[in-house]
Amino acid sequence: MSNQVHINPFSIQLLLNRKLWLVPLLLWAGVIGYSLLSNIYMIHDDHTDQATTSARNIFQFVELTRLWNARHRTVYVPETEKTPPNPYLEIYNRDVITKTGISLTMVNPAYMTRQLAELIKPESGIQFHITSLEPLRPENRADKWEQHALESFERGNHEIYERVTSDSSDVFRYMAPLFVKKPCLQCHIRQGYEIGEIRGGISVTLKSDQIFGHVHKLINREIIKHLSIFVISVILAWLFLEKIRLHWLEMESIKKTQDQPIRNNTDELIQLSRNDLATKLLNRKTISEILDNEFNRAAHFLRDLSIIMIKINGLNPILDQYGKATEKEVLTAVSGSIETIIRPTDWASRFSNDHFAIILPETSAKDAHKMVSNLHTAINQLEISSNTETLKVTTQIGSASFPDHSQSASSLIEHSIESMK
């Protein structure tokens, strides 16, 4: 079983290309941003819940005091400048005088609510207002926000709250409905009230800075915290990736250094299997494969194909008389002349010890004869110096063409050898 670890190519590309690091960086920024927004919303929600709870407690307290008043039926207080008789309370025993001559006036739940509101506002800044869609007292008329809340109570809502900001104020408003209860009928039976129906509501107004004053500090703290986490994590991740990247590059460099001799040897082996050692031209095996392919292509597409065969005269006697070095000089000189004359699209090879073969794709018999003439001229001008002698190179050159002379690759070779002169 192989222990080699296979690494995803995309992972390698991601590691090596720093620009791709921006992809996880942006994803991480999205996670941090989402967390920051969630925490900010949570802060606002928590403080809204806190404000709602405070306002609801105030409403419930006022409602309990009203119920206490209503259950006692007759609650009297001394008549003063600040507590005059209630002109909207039309009952026979509204005002009484004690045996000691003190004037008392009845304080019903609505009147007591107004008194409490006037008392609490300057002390705490908290405001609450009793109102309805059809108030008896003009001062109890609902403002636009309260009217919207009262209408929503008619549709089934049990409470309304929101933070209301304007150029001149920033407050949190809360309102809940007032339901008619049995003790209420002693004062409101003339208005046709029925137990359980909504006949108004009490709105509570809190200054926003009392509840939300330090929200901005909490939000700034969250921003600093998330930004610090993002920056520190990005720096650490970047340094970590950079370290891995450098390690990978070092390993790749070592691997290339180790693989280069193998690659060079492989290239040399491939070249040795395809080329002749003395001339560096293609060898017989390679040129035979190319000839088969070119012949099949020419036969399929009905194209011209020619081959030229060159034989060096007296090469074996040169080897016997002058040695291997002189023989190699002759071969090198002839192959050099061939490479000078042929075109980039032609194929040249050392076909045997003293034979060279040249394949000419897309070449007619006429053009092949011109190439033969050029080769004769170039090669016959070669002179090789050996000690004190100068050797003159002579050759025999023949050619054959498809489809003029042959209908197979092997017969092309035979015909070109037969036509040598």
N-end to C-end Cα span: 64 Å
Largest sheet: 4 strands, antiparallel
- What is the approximate shape? rod-shaped
Number of strands: 13
Structural class: alpha+beta
Radius of gyration: 55 Å
Walk me through this protein's architecture.
The protein is an alpha+beta fold. The protein contains twelve helices and 13 strands. The strands form four sheets. A four-stranded antiparallel beta sheet has the order 4-7-6-5, with helices on both faces. Strands 9-10-8-13 form a four-stranded antiparallel beta sheet, sandwiched between helices. A hairpin with a 2-residue loop joins strand 11 and strand 12 (389-392). The radius of gyration is 55 Å and the shape is rod-shaped. It starts with 8 loop residues before the first helix and ends with a helix. The mean pLDDT is 84.
Kindly list the characteristics that best describe this protein.
alpha+beta, 421 residues, four-stranded antiparallel β-sheet, 13 strands
Can you lay out the helices and strands and say which pair or pack?
Layout: H1 9-16, H2 22-72, E1 76-78, E2 95-97, E3 103-106, H3 109-124, E4 127-131, H4 144-154, E5 160-165, E6 170-179, H5 185-188, E7 198-207, H6 208-212, H7 215-274, H8 284-301, E8 305-312, H9 315-322, H10 324-341, E9 347-350, E10 355-361, H11 365-380, E11 383-386, E12 389-392, E13 395-402, H12 409-418
Antiparallel strand pairs: 1-3, 2-3, 4-7, 5-6, 6-7, 8-10, 8-13, 9-10, 11-12
